[in-house]
Amino acid sequence: LFTYHDEAAKLAGATDYQSQGLAYSLDKGRTWTKYAENPVLPNSGIEDFRDPKVFWHQDTGRWIMSLAVANHIWFYSSTNLLDWTYESAFGHDQGAHGGVWECPDLFPLPIEGTEEEAWVLLVSVTEGGPNGGSATQYFVGHFDGCTFSVHPDAPDPELPTSPAKGAEPALWLDWGTDNYAGVTWSDIPSEDGRRIFLGWMSNWQYAQVVPTMTWRSAMTLPRVLSLAPDLRLRQAPIHPFDDYGKALETKDMYTTEAAQQTQLPLGQYLAFEADLSDAESFSLVLGDQEEYVSFTLTPKQGLMDLSREHSGETTFHQAFANPILGNWKGASPTVRYEVFVDESSVEIFLNGGEQVFSVLVFPSERYNQATFTANGKAVILKVVSKELSLQS
């Protein structure tokens, strides 16, 4: 299913300019034909009525549609994909409502370490993200084929210590500013079993003014979603990288102390562990003295801080250089880092995706150096820096 958008009707003042249509393919998705009697779900006069995500609900033997309607979600059911019945609404009193809700996705995930599962509802919001602009929130709960309800043990909604103006508490998928409108693949073979997510790597604050030519925006790395025992959503990068690329640096241990810096060559992939038992704070700096991104973890205070202030071109939007903050919740003093650096993006995964920062950057050239610094003493273990290539 897809959303029809009648721009002429919108400009003429109509509110029902969005409706849902059906298209089908007879050649494995290479070409598509629109159903002759579209729309299959007309609009009764709601301005924002879009982004259907459909799946087969085995327990009730029906198709279920999640639809973004203004700043909440409506659920519909159908036995034939043509005739849709309204079932329920969710979100009037849940989550962040700083802007319009978009791109819902509803799916079950097993709860790690248990025999149970819970349902996860992803919802993107156009404004009100924790660090400004658009962002993706999620809810963990129960779905019975008709209604979605939040799990009684779901984590509390949260914001960073100094949130952006207008931000509202929620369970945020990504502390970075550039992971929006993502959904997961349907019908991954059961023998695989993974729930794989892909997001749009931009932010509605500045998406239409980024300093690029011939292209605008990109996608995040695909990520495998999982549900931790505390019902927080993890997102770990898919790993086809072990057998590809050229190692620039591999080392078992570095020790970084106050007034010291440890530098190493940086490829597109950097992985290491940091023992921060004796560190007040630890910083990873990507780039040189002229253009760089810094990411600082202050574990005892539960703070994370990513700075793009000196990342390259930042003047195209007043908010682009603002601090990007997150709440650290790691229980162990040892933190696992995976960092992916492309020409215009940085994606940082901590402890297998327990905390994630996805951000755009616009340096004059890709960062090719990494620096470790610490307030106190940090022991850096199992360092791997690689240039990624599809040719091994």
What is shown here, in short?
With 392 residues, this protein is mostly beta strands.
Report what the structure shows:
With 392 residues, the protein is mostly beta strands. The protein folds into 2 domains: 48-237, Glycosyl hydrolase domain, family 43 (Tachylectin-2, Chain A), CATH 2.115.10.20; 248-387, Jelly Rolls (Sandwich), CATH 2.60.120.560. It has 1 helix and 27 strands. It has one helix at 7-11, and strands at 2-5, 18-21, 23-24, 33-34, 49-57, 62-69, 72-78, 85-90, 101-110, 117-125, 135-143, 148-150, 180-184, 195-201, 218-219, 223-227, 233-237, 246-257, 262-265, 269-287, 292-298, 303-307, 324-327, 334-342, 345-350, 355-360, 369-387. Strands 18, 19, 20, 21, 22, 23, 24, 25, 26 and 27 form a 10-stranded antiparallel beta sheet that branches. Strands 13, 14, 15, 16 and 17 form a 5-stranded antiparallel beta sheet that branches. Strands 5-6-7-8 form a 4-stranded antiparallel beta sheet, with no helix packed on it. Strand 25 (345-350) and strand 26 form a beta hairpin. The longest helix is centred in the first third of the chain and has 5 residues, at 7-11. The chain is globular. The two termini are 40 Å apart. The mean pLDDT is 95.
